[in-house]
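hiii so um. not sure if this is the right channel but i have a protein structure encoded as tokens and i wanna go backwards to a sequence. like what aa goes where. can anyone help
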């Protein structure tokens, strides 16, 4: 309604026919736009598969009592967080082939750039989660003969993961939105598909309005899924 009102005030003539499901051309355009959904989900899942393990390792280093590890954590987190995601995507895609001779496709470059960018935030989430575990539980684990690694694996991480699940869910939603910046290097996700259709149809307002709806539905579905998983994991055990 707001868009219609603004456009109407400027004598704008809407051209919804370009994405009308009642017309063959609209159906074709809708299929083209929606086909970017799988690319968005794939790149987001792959980037999280990189950022979560890497962030967990960096986060455990930050929660460690060993000073060199804590310093390494701080340097990594501050350096990576200081670089905007878009800049990192451009540098990985265009810089790695020149500096290191590593040729990457758009998918691999996107996974590396988004994974590295998100890993710094994941590291802080994991560090906070690990440090939230009561010290008495850790000392108790040591007292029964568990090693530092066993204590982290069996005592600390299972509890920390339950506590940081909402934050991890937020990062999943954030990654879905951040994947849109990969359109700049030609990755065929939702935003890239919309940009290409705008070039051929010359109806940017209608197409980008549909893009907003696509992201809205995707993010709402992802948010619901994460809340459902959180509720399942936090459900008390009953014999």
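sure thing!! here u go:
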């Amino acid at each position: 309604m707001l868009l219609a009102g603004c456009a109407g005030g400027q004598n704008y003539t809407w051209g919804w026919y370009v994405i009308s499901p009642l017309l063959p051309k609209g159906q074709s355009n809708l299929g083209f736009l929606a086909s970017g959904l799988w690319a968005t989900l794939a790149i987001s899942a792959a980037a999280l598969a990189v950022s979560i393990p890497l962030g967990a390792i960096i986060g455990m280093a930050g929660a460690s009592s060993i000073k060199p590890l804590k310093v390494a954590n701080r340097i990594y987190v501050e350096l990576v967080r200081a670089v905007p995601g878009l800049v990192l995507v451009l540098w990985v895609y265009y810089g790695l082939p020149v500096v290191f001779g590593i040729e990457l496709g758009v998918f691999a470059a996107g996974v590396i750039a988004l994974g590295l960018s998100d890993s710094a935030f994941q590291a802080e989430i994991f560090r906070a989660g690990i440090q939230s575990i009561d010290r008495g539980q850790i000392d108790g684990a040591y007292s029964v003969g568990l090693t530092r690694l066993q204590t982290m694996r069996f005592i600390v991480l299972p509890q920390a993961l339950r506590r940081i699940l909402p934050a991890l869910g937020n990062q999943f939603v954030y990654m879905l939105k951040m994947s849109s910046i990969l359109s700049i290097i030609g990755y065929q996700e939702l935003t890239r598909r919309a940009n290409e259709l705008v070039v051929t149809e010359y109806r940017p307002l209608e197409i980008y309005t549909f893009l907003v709806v696509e992201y809205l539905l995707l993010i709402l579905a992802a948010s619901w899924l994460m809340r459902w998983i959180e509720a399942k994991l936090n459900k008390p055990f009953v014999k």
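oh and The chain has a mean pLDDT of 90.
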